[in-house]
Design goal:
Blueprint lengths: L1 H22 L5 H24 L6 H27 L4 H12 L6 H8 L2 H30 L5 H9 L2 H14 L6 H14 L2 H9 L8 H25 L3 H11 L5 H10 L3 H23 L5
Helix pairs in contact: 1-5, 1-10, 1-14, 2-8, 2-9, 2-10, 3-4, 3-6, 3-11, 3-12, 4-6, 4-11, 4-13, 4-14, 6-7, 6-12, 6-13, 11-12, 11-14, 13-14
Amino acid sequence: MLVANWRLAAVAALFFVGVAARRLNVAGEPQGRALLGFVFNIGLPILIFGALAGVPLVREHALLPVAAMCICIVGGVVGRLVARRLALPRISEGALVLCAMSINNSMLYPFAALSLGAAAFSQLVMFDMGHAVLVWTVTTVVACRYGGHADDIPVLLKRTLFSPPLWVLALALALNLADAPLPADLLHVVLLIGQGLILLVPLSMGLLVRARGLRRPEVITAVVLRSGFGLLVGFALVWLFGLSGTAAAIALMGSAAPIGFTAVVLSAREGLDLDLAASAAAISVFLGSLWIPLAMMFIPR
């Protein structure tokens, strides 16, 4: 247990290594984006294949992605109501809604890779895939509408269909359902490679975070909506779906996870309040780097 805890702390430290590298001008946002792109297009597909192809599917594999979608949708609806209550301008309202809808599951992966078994890890992957599908569809549409670029929606949705993680997810599920004989040693090696590559995520996030605008009340509101209100929704869904054990713990951790950098990327692309999105993401990622490794210790293996 002591060794595992030190390994979790080492992963958390990678985030602060990235922060220090940015402060020292050793690396910066371009390198952070490049690392995340590499993880998304290469590391995540490898991880998905290794985590799902050889693990028997259970009821939770269907319920967890639905839970992730529900958390995002409810968060977006409440985010819009709160933004209207605060009388925010349209671009700030859009950024706040995106923050409430974007879950940073990638912050969970490095810690889960060190502490969860293959069966539990596959459940986290399915939770993330539910969120990812929603981000590539509904959240993207919401961002385009707030940005006044509704004409871009068909192009963006077509791009979603060619996303490497989505195709690998379909392949892994198909092989699993077909009970295709895959060597266990091969799947174990693939999983280890994917888990190793995913360790680049906290480093890249340290390179990307920006802490401007921290005194704006809507920034703190976005953080509370994503992690505080999201956790309440998570508890409700765990009760509603009858989840327990590892599945319940993963759903709750995902519901309280930091703001995803998708909110920052979409805010930048659609001309929304980038300062709000980036500042809120910076705070929530920093807090996540502190509580996630502690919470991961209590997930049933």
